[in-house]
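Data deposition worksheet. Section B asks for the primary sequence of the deposited chain exactly as it was used as input, without tags or linkers unless they were present during the calculation. Section C holds the resulting structure in token form. Section D is free text for depositor observations; keep each observation to a single sentence. Incomplete worksheets are returned to the depositor.
Section A, Depositor: J.P.
Section B:
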Amino acid sequence: MHPEAARLVGAVRPGAVCLVVGGACDICTGALSVLAGTGGQVHCLDSPDRPARWSAMASTLGGADVVVHRSTDGVDAVCAQAELPKVDFIKADVRIAPPGLLLDAFVTLLRDRPALLLHIGPGGPVRRGRCEPDIVSSLTRSLAYEVYRWQGGDWRPVTSAVRDEGKYLFKTCEIPTGPL
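Section C:
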């Protein structure tokens, strides 16, 4: 199994519906396709500005379960158009993803509580007026996600501010119910 796929075994189960936002043709697309299996789906949101060959390549990486959406619409709009009943996992490179990625996915994040693999770091988000601490804060405080980083062969909790470029896994926390 490819190392990228091995890292996601616990986060992506057979039958999962996955989204890839920003950079549709990458090794993670193939890994997600393998992990989601024949009953799962991988939907790649790719900009119409990117060369069509990248979208075509993404659709051949994992077989029939990979669907490429060449659109400027956000995550919520694409999920509605594709009539996805639930999204289990979102992989996004926030350095190159469209501005407003999380805002455009808010309904999906709230409704489905998917795990997220975000590639964050210096560069793209800062020059677009966003910064990683804002992204991390909105997920951890507003939507009750926990942050993990791959270290020493396992996903380890991140307890301080995210400062290094890299891939971070966000998983939902148990939201307490009842009186506080």
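Section D:
The first strand starts at residue 17 and ends at 21.
The radius of gyration is 16 Å.
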